[in-house]
Design brief:
With 242 residues, the protein is mainly α. The protein is 50% helix and 3% strand. It has one domain (8-12, 34-237): Lysozyme, CATH 1.10.530. The chain is globular and about 60 Å long.
Length: 242
């Protein structure tokens, strides 16, 4: 179990709409043979959830683009922008401030499925960890209120974090993606994505993995492990035109 610099508590307070419900709400990956069969089931299970979240993000991004080009915004559009600003940690969003628009565009964007699956696989052992089985937590996200989650067996003496419990897999995926999109620890990841956008390159999990130096205490080694997971399992095949 890694000790993540990943403050899930700051994410859990944010309410993001998410409606996708998969047919198989709970898969016991332990019942599947380890190896190709379990890995494929894991990918097939998470992929539609990831795609639905990313679709929602891209729709919001397209709306932001459209509104940013308008000379005058109506009341409904202004209200929506304030709502989006609040969700992405800008409670004082000003439509006349270009830096506020730039900040939103840097945050409201997809996280490639290859990266989501690779991190989910790494943190959950392809879905077999007790944090998945008991808390729907695929990404090792922490929380900091007593009873908010599951106590890690290897938690250091004096530490007070728990591994967050989620009501559904969708909530786990959503909070993980929102964390990468909002937390200050992942500014580098968002800067990499922004550079790829500006130069017309595809946003890939391999590239964004370079921004995960604060996801684990293991730093660069962790990044290389995630990139190896993407490469060895051909997870880049999950990436659609973005």
């Amino acid at each position: 179990m890694h000790h993540f610099i990943l403050l899930a508590s700051s994410v859990c307070a944010i309410s993001f709409a998410f409606t996708y419900e998969p047919e198989n709400k709970n898969i016991n990956f332990l019942e599947l043979p380890a190896g190709i069969e379990r890995k494929q089931a894991f990918i097939d299970f998470l992929q539609p959830i990831i795609e639905e979240k990313n679709l929602s993000l891209l729709q919001d991004r397209q709306k932001l683009t459209r509104l940013s080009k308008k000379v005058k915004l109506n009341i409904r559009e202004q209200r929506w922008l304030r709502h989006i600003g609040h969700l992405y940690n800008n409670n004082e969003f000003n439509t006349n401030d270009e830096s506020h628009w730039a900040e939103l565009f840097s945050k409201v964007d997809l996280i490639p499925a290859s990266l989501v699956v690779a991190q989910g696989a790494k943190e959950s052992g392809w879905g077999i960890s007790r944090f998945v089985q008991q808390g729907n937590n695929y990404f090792g996200q922490w929380c900091y209120k007593t009873g908010c989650g599951l106590v890690p067996k290897d938690r250091n003496q004096g530490a007070d974090h728990e591994v967050a419990k989620y009501k559904s897999v969708q909530e786990s995926v959503t909070n993980y993606i929102n964390n990468l999109n909002t937390h200050s620890a992942y500014i580098t990841l968002r800067e990499i994505r922004e550079r790829l956008r500006k130069t017309g390159q595809a946003v890939t999990g391999h590239h964004l993995a370079y921004g995960l130096q604060h996801y684990s205490e293991r730093g660069q080694i962790y990044i290389e492990e995630i990139q190896a997971l993407i490469r060895n399992n051909k997870l880049d095949m999950l990436e659609k035109s973005s």
